Amino acid sequence: MNNFWEIVKFEYRKLFGRKMVWLTLGVCIAIIAVSCCGSLLGDFIVDGSYYDSNYHILRKDIENAKALSGRAVDDELIEEMRNAYQKASPSDYISYMDYARPYMEIYRIVNNISGEEVTNAKQYYAAREKLLETFWRRERLTEGEETWLKAREEELSKPFVYEYSSGWHRSALMGYTVALVMAFVTGICVPLIFTEEHLQRTAQVNFCAKNGKEKLYLAKAFTAVSFSTAANLVLAAVTFAVTLLIYGTDGFDAQIQLLLPMSSLSMTVGECAVIVLGMSFLAALFYCVLAMLLAECFKNNVVPLGMLIGSILILNMISIPDNLRVLSQIYNCIPQQLVSFAGMRSNKLFSLFGTYFTRQQIVPFIYLIICAAGLVVCRRVYLSYQVGKAYGK
């Protein structure tokens, strides 16, 4: 029992010897793959009649968007977009597809800012600046935070340059799904590593060897963490592979303001996708440690999964108002918000020693500290387990 790696190998052999593990991984990979390519399925119906396949419509949209890539969002492009929409008849969807749809991304960028028709670039950037100030007030930012964000605004390249970036955008949107699926993976698979010896009453055999408990716990913890990390890596790899294969790798350097206009950070869409899916590893680690602790506390396979999914559902139904600054900032750091693409627009900062940090800069350290503390608590619970008392002897 003193050979650490032999124990780890044994734990992995037991884990992958269960059909439930293979079934869970297979189903979860399939969910991710289908979620990435769901928009390709089916037909495009207009007024109850077949117009085209969704796949062919998507290819046209990508072709049109790439044709506009590299163009500044200025008076010329806005006027071109307005003329195209004026040519399209509101009652004729075919004319919309021919004239207006090629410019739908520009329309979304320009007109979603103020909620009214924008006629020129000056109006667009003024509307964005006004909306930013409203957004900051709603988030109850401090004067120091607003000053820091205004400095970041000055660093942004304007006018914005449109670039097709659907591959990276779609990858970032999948971050939430990857984290949710990982909650199922860890909730089902990780408890199996810890509860088997209790359910089969073999703990007294495992613990009888010298240093048995300590070595065994370290091996089990390493197996759980490495398995969760590897599983998340596979899901993230499938996400990138499928989305980038379908939508292409163009637009890694596209400005994030094209998709998240309320963000003041000089971040690209590709960097955002990498960060969001990177955060999913923190979520997976957190779920893994929580599943380990619950499994060891309750000596049960079902409770960890139920509590993980239950907590996610409950937290999704909760909304913390921005005037409760501390609570709302904590809520923005829970796993579901951490891997949300929309959550990347949050401008709430962390202040340490007079220096401001964004959420994605400070949260990884917080999660690593929490997970390390969880592993220590789990170790204490594991080592304090008394076989005789548990079996009623």
Question: Which helices and strands, and how do they pair?
Answer:
Elements (H helix, E strand, L loop, with lengths): L3 H13 L2 H19 L5 E4 L2 E5 H15 L2 E2 L2 H13 L5 H8 L3 H8 L9 H18 L4 H13 L5 E2 L3 H8 L1 H25 L3 H5 L4 H36 L21 H30 L3 H15 L8 H7 L3 H4 L11 E3 L2 E3 L1 H25 L3 H4 L3
Helix pairs in contact: 1-12, 2-10, 2-12, 4-5, 4-6, 9-12, 9-13, 10-12, 10-13, 10-14, 12-13, 12-17, 13-14, 13-17
Please give a structural write-up.
This protein is mainly alpha-helical and 393 residues long. Helix content is 68%, strand content 5%. It contains 18 helices and six strands. It has helices at residues 4-16, 19-37, 54-68, 75-87, 93-100, 104-111, 121-138, 143-155, 166-173, 175-199, 203-207, 212-247, 269-298, 302-316, 325-331, 335-338, 359-383, 387-390; strands at residues 43-46, 49-53, 71-72, 161-162, 350-352, 355-357. The strands form three sheets. Strands 1-2 form a two-stranded antiparallel sheet. Strands 3-4 form a two-stranded antiparallel sheet. Strand 1 and strand 2 form a beta hairpin. Helix 2 packs parallel to helix 12 and helix 4 runs antiparallel to helix 5 (93-100). The longest helix has 36 residues, at 212-247. The two termini are 25 Å apart. Residues 388-393 have low confidence and may be disordered.
Briefly summarize what is shown.
By secondary structure, the chain is mainly α. The protein is built from 18 helices and six strands. It has helices spanning 4-16, 19-37, 54-68, 75-87, 93-100, 104-111, 121-138, 143-155, 166-173, 175-199, 203-207, 212-247, 269-298, 302-316, 325-331, 335-338, 359-383, 387-390, and strands at residues 43-46, 49-53, 71-72, 161-162, 350-352, 355-357.
